[in-house]
Amino acid sequence: MSIARFVSCTAVTAALLASASVRRASADAPAPRVVEVTARRFEFTPAAIRLRKGETVTLRLRTLDVRHGLFSRPLGIDAEFEPGAARDVTITPRETGTFVVICDRFCGSGHGNMKIAVVVE
Questions:
Q1: SS3 label, residue 88
Q2: What is the pTM of this model?
Q3: pLDDT of the chain along its 121 residues, tens only?
Q4: Which of 101, 90, 99 is nearest to 68 (CA)?
Q5: Are 31 and 102 in contact (CB under 8 A)?
């Protein structure tokens, strides 16, 4: 076996082992905590959510009336959800602070006050 072929085989083997290790770590990771968020004109329930920095959380969105949106640029949230179907949005906050998450789908006269305070500690 030539040196070049040996080096090539070694690199491929190392890549395969690293890939298997990553897959095993992902399979062993705990499922994200699920936070249920319900929307209806003109409020979200809960109105505030506490998360930990680096914690992966799934927001399970439901609406009781019309289509709503959920948006926060700093948290990477941009979702719409419709009556009769849950929508999951998984996030991992990377910064601490208090973030305002808004409904960005006009749903009526009180739409401008429809928000959630997300506190990341």
A1: strand
A2: 0.74
A3: 665 665 565 555 555 555 555 555 567 878 999 999 999 999 999 999 999 999 999 999 999 999 999 999 999 999 999 999 999 999 999 999 999 999 999 998 989 999 999 999 9
A4: 101
A5: no
